[in-house]
Amino acid sequence: MLIASGLELEAKSSITGDQSADVIFIGDHIITVDSASVDVTAVAVAGQEIIATGSAEEILKLKKSSTRVIELGENALVPGFIDAHGHMTAVAKLTEVIDLAPPPVGYVESINDIVALVESTIEQQQLAPGTWVLGFGYDDSLLKERRHPNRNDLDQASLDHPIMLTHASGHLATVNSAALKESNIDKYTKNPPGGVIRRISDTGEPNGVMEETAMGLFPRNMLTPIEDSKFENLVRQAIQRYVSYGITTIQDGGANMPDIEKLRVVAKNKPYIADVVVFPWSNYFDDNQLLSIEAESSYTDGLRLGGVKFGLDGSPQGRTAFLSEPYNEGPPGTASDYRAYPIFPAEQFNPKMAQLLERGTPTLVHANGDGAIDMLIDGVAAALKNKEISDHRTVIIHAQLMRRDQLKQTKKLGLIPSYYSAHPFFWGDWHRRSFGEERAAFISPAAETARMQIPFTIHNDAPIVPPDMMRLMWVAVNRKTRSDFVLGPDQRLTPMQALHAITLGAAYQYFEEDKKGSIT
Ligand SMILES: [Zn+2]
Ligand SMILES: [Zn+2]
User: Which of its termini does the chain have fewer beta carbons within 10 Å around, N or C?
Assistant: First the structure.
C-alpha cells in the first residue's frame, strides 16, 4: 500500500490550463475515502497539495517533462494516516528507558525477565549508586506470574539505585525500596487525591505499586524532561517512526509546557516532516493558566497547539478505569463493590470545561470507564444548558466502556468518541475477566457508533501501543484477542469504516477535514 504522505489534501479538482503536476499517480486502487469521488484512477500532486483527481487521460494533461509518473499496479493509494490520539514526546523519551514490553512488541514474559533486564542495564551503563533507573511497558496481565512486580522483586535488581518501572497503561508504576526511601514514602504516607499507594496488608507498608496520581510522589518518572541536547534528536527519530507507519499528522496529547516550548524551538530550527498537533496536560492548570492557552488553527514549521487535554480516570487494563457498576475482578485486595475512582473531581472539571466551550478551545478528555464518561457528559451538558455552542467537537479520549445510553448523549451533545480500538487484541482476554462478558463485548463500540451516525475515530495511544496503523485497522476490523476469541463480533468495523476513522474521520476531529483525510 502506498500512502499519500505529507500531502495537504486540498479539494481542487477542476483542471485549469496553466497547471502542471510534480507527481502523478495512476492506478485502479485509489481509495479516496471521500464518498463523493469514487471513480478516481489518477491523482496529480504539486508541491504539498493534491491539485486534481480523475481519469488517467484527464490527469495526464498536467504532465510536464519533469513530472514523475507513478504506476501503482496492484498497490492501493490511500490518504496519509492521521493519529487521533497519542503522545509523541513520550514516544521520543521512552527510547531512553528500559523497554519492558511483552511479545509481540517486546520480549518480557516474567518478573525474572524484568529483574534481569534492570540488573543488566545498571551493569552495562555502569550507573552509580543513587542514579534513578527507569523502565516502561511491563504488563501484569501478560506476565507469567499475573501480578505486578513489587518492591521485593525489584530490590533483587538493586538496593542502591532507586528503580521506577511504569506499567504498560502508563497509569501505574512499581518502585523498589530505594525509590520509596529517597522519596520519603512509608506506611505513614497517605494516598494522594486521585491515587492509591498499594500496601502490604498486615503492616500497611507500601508494596511498591503506585496507582495514578501516587506516581507523582516521586522526583523522577519516565516523562520527566530530558536534556535539551538530546531532545531534538529523540523527537525527530520519533516523528520518523510515525511516518514509517504512514502517519502524516501526529498527536502529542497531554504534553507538559516546557516540552511544548522545546518543540517550538526545534521546529524553528528545521520544520517537522509531518504535522504535529500538541495539547498541553491541563488537569493542574489554574484559571489563569487555562486562559493563557491559545489554540492555533494553522501549522507553523509543522507544529500547532490544537487545544487542551484533561484526564478523568485511569485505564481498563490497569483496572483503574472508573466504572458506574463494580468490576467483575478488581485489583488484589479490593472489595467486591470496587469501581475504581476519578482522578480529577467534577467540581474542578466542570467550570473548566464550561470555560473552554465558551472560548471555543478544542478539548480532549481522557475517559475510559463509563463512570468517567458520565462525568464528561454531565460537565458538557451543564455547560451547554441554555447556550448555543455548536460544533465544539470535544473528544472523549478512549471511551472504551461507553454504554448504549451514553452514545445517545454523545450524539446529542456533539461529542466525538476516539476509541482505543487496539485493546481487543492487546487486552481483550483480560477485559473479559475484569468486566464480564457483556461489558467486554461492548468495549469500544465503534460499529454501533457508526450505525448511529456519530463521528468517531480510533487510535493506538502510542507509546502504550506502537503507532502501527495497519495493526490498529486489523484489530478494529477483526476484534480478535490474543487467544483468538472474537470480542464483540457486532462491533467489528468494515475495512472502509476503519480506514475512514484514521483518515477523514480523524481530520474532522482536528477541524482539518477541508485540507486532509481524503484524496480529493
Ligand atoms: Zn489516556
Ligand atoms: Zn493517551
Answer: N
Q: Tell me which DSSP letter residue 480 carries.
A: B
Task: Report the pLDDT value the prediction gives residue 17, as an integer from 0 to 100.
Answer: 57
- Residue 38 pLDDT exceeds 90: no
163 φ/ψ angles, rounded to the nearest 5 degrees: -120, 135
Taken in order of first residue, the domains within the chain and their CATH numbers are 2-79 (2.30.40.10), 97-217 (3.10.310.70), 233-509 (3.20.20.140)
Q: What pLDDT was estimated at residue 37?
A: 79
**Radius of gyration for the alpha carbons in the chain, expressed in angstroms and rounded:** 24
C-alpha closest to that of 2 among 33, 35, 38, 27? 27
Ligand 2 geometric centre to CA of 465 (Å): 10
CA 215 – CA 237 distance, rounded (Å): 27
Ordered DSSP codes for 175-188:
E-HHHHHHTT--TT
Distance 228 CA to ligand 2 centre (A): 24
How far, in Å, are 81, 147, 228, 274 from residue 235 at the CA level?
A: 19, 33, 11, 12
Three-class secondary structure of residue 321 per DSSP: coil
CA of 343 to the centre of ligand 2 (A): 15
User: What DSSP letter does each residue of 259-280 carry, written as one string?
Assistant: HHHHHHHHHHHS--SSEEEEEE
Rounded CA-CA distance 198/22 in Å is 60
The per-residue b/e assignment along 236-275, b for 16 or more CB within 10 angstroms, e otherwise, is: bebbebbbebbbbbbbbbbbeeebbebbeebbeeeebebb
pLDDT of residue 8: 46
Spell out which residues have Cβ within 5 A of ligand 1, the ion: 366
CA of 461 to the centre of ligand 2 (A): 5
Ligand 2 center from residue 46 Cα (angstroms): 35
Beta carbons of 210 and 216 less than 8 angstroms apart: no
- Which ligand sits closest to the CA of 367? 1
Report ipTM (2 d.p.): 0.97
Residue 236 C-alpha cell reads as 525527530
Taking the centre of ligand 1 as the mean of its atom positions, its distance from the CA of residue 311, in whole angstroms, is 7
How far apart CA 354 and CA 472 sit, in angstroms, is 33
Q: What is the pLDDT of residue 3?
A: 59
CA 320 to centroid of ligand 2, rounded, Å: 14
- Closest by alpha carbon to 162, among 131, 186, 126, 117? 131
